[in-house]
Amino acid sequence: MLPILKIVLQRLGLGLITLFVVSIVIFIAVNALPGDFAEAILGQGATPESVASIRRDLGLDQPMLVRYFDWLKGMLTLDLGTSFAQLNFANFGGAGTTTVVEQIAPRLANTMFLATVTASIAVPLAVSLGILAALYRNTAFDKAANIFTLSSISSPEFFMAYVLILFLAVLNPIFPSLSNIFDGMPFSERLEKSMLPALTLTLVVTAHMMRMTRAAIINLLASPYIEMARLKGLSPMRVIVKHALPNALAPIINVIALNLAYLITGVVVVEVVFVYPGIGQLFVDSVKIRDIPVVQACCLIFAAAYILLNLTADILSIISNPRLRHPK
Amino acid sequence: MSGLMWFAIVIVAIMVGGYIFRLAGQKITGNAPMFRDMSFGVAFGYVLAAALLVWAVYYYFQPTVTEAGTPNAGVVFFKWAVHGFVIAAIAAYLFRLLGRFVGTAGSRKLFRSMPLTASFGILVILIYAIVAVFAGVIAPYGQSEILGAANVLAGGDLASGGDPAYPLGTDQIGRDILSRLIYGAQNTVGIAFITTCLAFFIGGSLGFLAATLQGWLDQLLSRSVDVLMAIPSLIFALLLMTIASVWSAKLGVPLTIFMVLIIAMIDSTRVYRLARAVGLNIVVMDYIEAAKLRGEGLGYLVFKEILPNAMAPLLAEFGLRFCFVFLTIAALSFLGVGIQPPLADWGTMVRDLGPFINFAAFIPTAAVTPLLAAGAIALLTVAVNFVVDWMLHKTSGLKE
Predict the structure, then answer these.
(1) Confidence label for B400 from pLDDT (cuts 50, 70 and 90)
(2) How confident is the model at residue B203, as a pLDDT?
(3) B361 to chain A: which residues are within 8 Å by CB?
(4) Whose CA is closest to B336, among A287, A144, A102?
(5) What is the Cα gyration radius of chain B?
(6) Phi and psi torsions of B42, nearest 5°
(7) What does the pLDDT average to over A4-18?
(8) Among A159, A275, A171, which Cα is nearest to B358's?
């Protein structure tokens, strides 16, 4: 167990370093703004005095290195500051401001919900379709599946989304086309409302996972032990499920994790189409009004999730390799 | 609930049908191997496919207008889809036939072994290229020309809110949608193409450079690429676009130029990875050693020795990369931070015309416009993917 533990720990350390460097990149990118936040907040009609006061409030008069570590400390202690939009609102006599954390947390939970629903539909579907395509390779079913998956991989998410809206919401009102989800909604209603975005994401992700599952299994079919299993007289289904699948597990797990990571970017567009109150929607809205603290925080969260999923893929594929699990 | 019950009944009926089908096949053919060895799943599949086919034919011949006089939109769309599919298949077939008899010996040979999907892909790419180049001649109106009537519906039928002068209708401020779709080919595809070329120039030359020189430069470039690739590309693009929008307002440079640079930068990291990997396999060859001993310079090595030998994988990557760039630009425009108005662009059109889709049940033609713009994007990426898929299959010699 020792060598594998060492590899896993190495990967974890590498992931942490990557995340740290990514946070530096995001910080530098944001600080490449002309002028600074203060001007960005106040816009064109800013007086020098108000710029100076906001600059003082946000600590922008500090050197960059100090600000970076302040920001990092804030990130680690979940104190992400206050969004500009909220700050403006408060300046104009609005009610108390909410912090970025209070803004992001419920939306992150919503997005997680959507991703979970999608994954629990997409993964079993993709793997079983992939096995079927490998089993009936080069038949009409396989060719139709190939054309269909290739088309759905290459179409933009919003095309899929609108086609689904047209058929499942407008022509046959099965699911609602607006996913207005709020706290305290009963689970079944929540599930129903997030069904269309989940189905859209499923379509996009399933195709890729299925193709990779098929390819991973077919790659193994030329191996001698598969020949042996066939010669023993096993049925094709048994050959694939019992003999090929366990050995194809590493690439399949890898591609599943990568596609879940892909969900993170896909989720942005899909949430906008269905007005789903997730973190992607918040991100796009903040980008449009240049709400830098929120953009920064969302960006780091997306990157962290992406790195984490890639890391999981890495570690799982190491663990699923028996040669590493049982060293001589 | 009754819907679910019907679904269950249909599935059970098909299962029974599959069992009977196999049994009947065994009895009638006297236990032919095909039926004798058929598993239940396969029999189920055959009957399912047959049932789907029967249903499709039945549905196709349903009346397009219900007895109450409202359009039966589902049937209308289904008919359009079937017509589109059949026309596309016939066009691809004819194009392949044409390619087998016209052209040089090499191209004729290529067309002879081509699957229908690939010839469809090539045909679509050609059409897009022609439309993009001659957009100004083909389009009936200018791309930002505001005409008299706003919100004219597609179809050119006066009774259902259309106008023969604008076959695909006009948008919210009265611009001709057909013209904007045609100009969209020029803008969206053109910008995506320029971006991809730029990404290839940056990523390719840096990748080959890293492969040739190796050492600290290779380490530096590869590690920075690793970091950049750890951020999801659409998210990173959105972050950088936020910053670019401030810069563009300050400098007075159009945001679109920033977008091209940003996406080229992000995508060049992926190209760099491939170019470096391919380059590393080439630099160990003897002819590179010979060229080095001849005293050739770095430029000669990269462009005259490595590049020609790395062409095949790079070309396939170019197709895929173009798709990614094109989809990223479309997504950015759809989110409202990409190609800026008044330039006609498909992503923006989908966002602006999207709400029309809610009227599809009453006026089927109303839903066409957003789907046409989104479909135009999808069609091109699907076409490129078909061609690349075929190319990869051909060059890798994959048989299974």
Answers:
(1) very low
(2) 92
(3) 170-171
(4) A287
(5) 27
(6) -65, -45
(7) 85
(8) A171
Q: What is the pLDDT of residue A267?
A: 85
What phi and psi values does residue B163 have, to the nearest 5 degrees? -155, 125
Quote the CA–CA distance of A261 and A309 in Å, as a whole number: 6
Let me know if residue B48 belongs to a domain.
yes
The torsion of the CA quartet A63, A68, A71, A76, rounded to 10 degrees, works out to -140
User: A185 touching B, CB under 8 A?
Assistant: no
Rounded distance between C-alpha atoms, residue A146 and residue A148, angstroms: 5
Looking at the complex, report in whole angstroms how far the Cα of residue A163 sits from the nearest Cα belonging to chain B.
Answer: 7
The CATH number of the domain holding residue B253 is 1.10.3720.10
User: Identity (one letter) of the amino acid at B41?
Assistant: G
Domain edge (last residue) among B27, B60, B93? B60
Could you give the CA distance from residue B334 to residue B330 in angstroms, rounded to a whole number?
6
Domain that holds residue B239: 177-395
- Cβ of A273 within 8 Å of Cβ of B354? The answer is yes
Residue B305 lies in a domain: yes
pLDDT, greater one: B398 or B151: B151
Residues of B in contact with A273 (CB under 8 A): 354
Is residue B1 predicted with pLDDT exceeding 70? no
Which tokens is B324 given?
Answer: 């990614």
Which residues have a Cβ under 8 Å from the Cβ of A159 and sit 6 or more positions away?
Answer: B350, B371, B374, B375, B377, B378
